[in-house]
Structures are given as C-alpha cells and as structure tokens.
Automatic annotation (TrEMBL):
Pathway: Carbohydrate degradation; pentose phosphate pathway; D-ribose 5-phosphate from D-ribulose 5-phosphate (non-oxidative stage): step 1/1. Transmembrane segments: none annotated. GO terms for biological process: D-ribose metabolic process; pentose-phosphate shunt, non-oxidative branch. It catalyses: aldehydo-D-ribose 5-phosphate = D-ribulose 5-phosphate. PANTHER family: RIBOSE-5-PHOSPHATE ISOMERASE. This is Ribose-5-phosphate isomerase A. The keyword Isomerase applies. Coiled coil: none annotated. The keyword Isomerase applies. GO terms for molecular function: ribose-5-phosphate isomerase activity.
Length: 230
C-alpha cells in the first residue's frame, strides 16, 4: 500500500498498538491507508495465532489486504454491529480527536463503518497531529453534481479541486463510482459547522470531516506509541 507522511516504523507502532485492543469474538472495522494496513497486518498475525474475529473492510484495498492476511471478512449488513474500527487519518487534533480522512478516497465507507462501531481507534504518525485542522477536505460527489458542489464549496469560502488519478488516467473514481473534490478551507475554526454545511449540499455523498467520532488516537513515533482516549 502506498505510504504517505511520516516514517513507516511510527505507523507500524501505531497500527500494532491499536490491533492489541482487539480480542476474541470481536467484529472489527478495517480501515484504509498505509497506517491502517499495519493494524491489518498485526491482526492477520493474531488470527494465525488463533484470534477469532471477523473484519469488515472499508475499501477494495483493505478488503484485499485482509484476504491476503487470512482474516475472515464480512459485509457490514452481515454482522450485528462492530466492536472496534481501526483507521488512519490525514490530520487529527489530538486535544479533541476530530480528524480529516479521505486521502485514500475511502472516507464514505470509513465513516459508515465508524458510525456502526462501538469504538473508532485512529492510528497516525506524529506528522498528522495538528492544533487546528487545515488539511484539504475530501468530498465524495455524485458525478452529475460536481459543478454544483464546487460552487457550494466556493460559497463556503473554500477552493475546490477535482482529484485526479493522473493526467493520463483522469479523475479518481471511488469504490462507489463517484468523484472526489478536495476542498481547501484554510484553517478550519468550526469543524462541526463546516461538516454540517457540507452534508447539506445536494450531490455530496460524504465528506472527510470526522467530528466526534474518535474514541482513541494512537500516535506512533520512532521509539514508542502514545494513546489518548476521548
Ligand atoms: O482516510 C484515509 C483513506 O481514505 C486514510 O486513512 C488516510 O488517508 C491516512 O492514510 P495513511 O495512513 O496512508 O497516511
């Protein structure tokens, strides 16, 4: 899986620490990205050693990752809720746990899985931690609504950019068949207000602002990992 941001060792420590919270009989949401992949790796090793869990992937990529590691998987409608979801973030405010996700264009399913879970454990390296959210906000958009959503983002004092896979391949298409508009709002002082405004725009499937979702954050570093609970 493509790596972003900080060191792989820091990401691995965060992913492994979160995976240690998983116990026998749990249904576990499997997040997307290079840090969440370390948690899936650790869960795969635990399953090999006898841990009895079922994983609910948040993307094509995390589904494949779980299959490769021998983790039994199910769709969300096949389990009776989730005990824990483990996922990465593009940026997180350590004080509140509010974060921005969607760098892998998987934030819609990630949010659905997080909402179905008793706990959301966010795993990051220190480069993701900020005092105020100012990362671009990924917005999954139904293709026919793109120009309207871009205008709405501008109306909210943001700058929209359609996410491109590459010049050659054209726009990113999500696992749900939609486009992604990345919106730059600068420093986000009222994340709950912005989240509510974006949710109201016709054609917005989901945005990457996760306000009041996080149960704990695991921040891996070169020499250890810290846990903050909310
Ligand atoms: O939200 C996500 C995918 O939609 C990822 O969790 C987020 O982009 C972090 O990825 P990484 O751990 O590779 O930096």
């Amino acid at each position: 899986m493509k790596s972003t941001g900080g060191s792989d060792a820091a990401k691995r420590r965060a992913g492994e620490a979160a995976a240690e919270q998983v116990t026998d009989g749990m249904a576990v949401g499997l997040g997307t990205g290079s840090t969440a992949a370390h948690a899936i790796d650790a869960l795969g090793r635990a399953v090999d050693a006898g841990l009895d869990i079922v994983g609910v992937p948040t993307s094509f990529a995390s589904r494949q990752c779980a299959i490769d590691r021998g983790i039994p998987i199910a769709d969300l409608d096949e389990v009776d809720g989730l005990d824990i979801a483990i996922d990465g973030a593009d940026q997180i405010v350590a004080e509140s746990g509010d974060c921005i996700k969607g760098g892998g264009a998987a934030h819609t399913r990630e949010k659905i899985v997080a909402a179905a879970s008793e706990e959301l454990l966010i795993v990051v390296d220190p480069t993701k931690v900020a005092e105020t959210l100012d990362h671009t906000v990924a917005i999954e958009v139904i293709p026919a609504a793109r120009t309207g959503v871009e205008a709405a983002v501008e109306g909210l004092d943001g700058t929209p950019t359609l996410r491109q896979a590459s010049d050659k391949d054209g726009p990113v298409i999500t696992d749900n068949g939609n486009l992604v508009v990345d919106a730059d709002f600068g420093s986000i002082d009222d994340s709950a207000g912005l989240a509510a405004s974006l949710s109201q725009v016709p054609g917005v499937v989901e945005h990457g602002l996760f306000v009041d979702y996080t149960s704990a954050v695991y921040i891996g570093s070169e020499d250890g990992v810290s846990e903050t609970r909310y």
